[in-house]
Amino acid sequence: MKTRQKDIKDMVRSKYDQIAKKSKSENESSCCGSGPSACCEEDYSMFNDDYSQVEGYTEEADLGLGCGIPTDFANIKPGDVVLDLGSGAGNDCFVARSIVGDTGFVYGIDFSEEMLQKANANKQKMGYKNMEFVQGDIEDMPFKNEMMDVIVSNCVLNLVPSKERAFKEIYRVLKNEGHFCISDVVLIGELPESLQKDAEMYAGCVSGALQKEKYLHIVEKAGFTNVTIHKEKEIVIPDEILLNYMNETELLAYKHADKGIYSITVSATK
C-alpha cells in the first residue's frame, strides 16, 4: 500500500511540474489541467470557476486548476494566518492576502518544485512580505500545532492518497475554533468503469475522488464540527467525450441515473 501511495504521489508531482510550465489556456484545453492534450480538442473548462472579478486575483497565478472559489466562503478576516493546501502558482494565496492585509500572513504548501518556483516569482513581482510558499506533503505538513486560523484548498485533496491523514493534519495545524473551507471533487453513485478510466485522464481530478458521503464522514471522524456544504455543482463531461468510452445506450442510462461527478465547497470548524 505504501509503495502504491508513493507511486501516486510521484505521478502527481511529475504531472504538476509539467502543468506549472504551461499557461492557463493550455491547461484548460487539456480538460482539467493535466490530462493528455489528446483527451479533447476544445477548451471545455469543465471544473473551473471564474476568478476574474475576485479581489486580489492575480492572472499570472491562475493556471485554471480549481473547481471552486473556497475563499468566497472561508470567512477570512484581516490579521488571520491562512494556509492554502496545494497552493500551485499562488492563486488562492493572493486572494487570501488581499483579505488578511498587512497584519495577517499567508502560507502556501505544495510539493511540486516547479509550482513553488512559479509562486515565488509571482510573490516577488507583487512585492509581498507576509507570504511564504513551502514545499511539503499535505499528509505530513512541516507546520507546528495550532498555527493557522483558516485553511483553504482548491481541487487538491482528491489527489492525496490518504484523505484520513490529510484531514488529521488539517485538524492538527488549525488553532482551536479555527476552520477550513475546501473546494474538491466528489462522486455521487458508482460511475461506470469506463468513465472512471476516462476520468483518470483529467489530471487525476476525478481518479482520486471519494464518494461524497465517505468524504464528509472522514471530515467528521477527524474531529471537525459544523460541517457545511456551501456550494455543489455537477461537472458535466461533454457527450462527444463520453461516447469515446460508452455507447449511446449506456450514455443515455448514465445521464438519467442518480450519479455523477460533482465539485463541492465545504467548511468545518475545529
Write a concise keyword list for the protein shown above:
270 residues; alpha/beta; Rossmann fold; eight-stranded mixed beta sheet; 9 helices; 22% strand
Set out the fold topology:
Layout (H helix, E strand, L loop, with lengths): L1 H19 L3 H5 L52 E5 L5 H10 L4 E6 L2 H14 L4 E5 L12 E7 L8 H11 E15 L4 H7 L10 E2 H10 L3 E10 L4 H4 L5 H9 L3 E10 L1
Tell me what the structure shows.
It is built from nine helices and eight strands. Strands 1, 2, 3, 4, 5, 6, 7 and 8 form an eight-stranded mixed β-sheet that branches. The radius of gyration is 18 Å and the shape is globular. It is of the alpha/beta class. Strand 4 (148-154), helix 5 and strand 5 form a beta-alpha-beta unit. The chain starts with a helix and ends with a strand. The chain has a single domain (2-269), classed as Vaccinia Virus protein VP39 (Rossmann fold, 3-Layer(aba) Sandwich), CATH 3.40.50.150.
Q: Label the structural class.
A: alpha/beta
CATH topology: Rossmann fold
pLDDT averaged over residues = 84
Number of strands: 8
- Beta-strand share of residues: 15-25%
C-alpha termini separation: 30 Å
Helix content: 25-40%
Order of helices and strands: HHEHEHEEHEHEHEHHE
Outline:
It contains 9 helices and 8 strands. By secondary structure, it is an alpha/beta fold.
